[in-house]
Amino acid sequence: MSVTSLVSFLLVGLIAGWLAGQIMKGSGFGLLGNMAIGIVGAFVGGFVFQLIGLTSDGLLGFIITATVGAIIFLFIARLIRS
What we know:
Keywords: Cell membrane, Membrane, Transmembrane, Transmembrane helix
Helix content: over 70%
Number of strands: 0
Protein name: Membrane protein
Shape: globular
Number of helices: 3
Oligomer: single chain
Main location: membrane
Largest sheet: none
Strand content: under 5%
Number of domains: 1
Distance between the termini: 38 Å
Radius of gyration: 12 Å
Subcellular location: Cell membrane
Membrane topology: Multi-pass membrane protein
């Protein structure tokens, strides 16, 4: 993995985590929290999208996939905490 790919992956995670935090909670989780949630969301979203037969291309598609996955992750985490 090149440095550019790593930076892009972390940036997508940061954006997706922040967006999911805004949608699910009303605020973000801090820089590292948003990044972690977005990275987990990227894996969850990729898995879910693959299950239902959707694909995403380009930066915007990756951000959408990671955001959807992060929202799913936060929803499940909220259910477990309750």
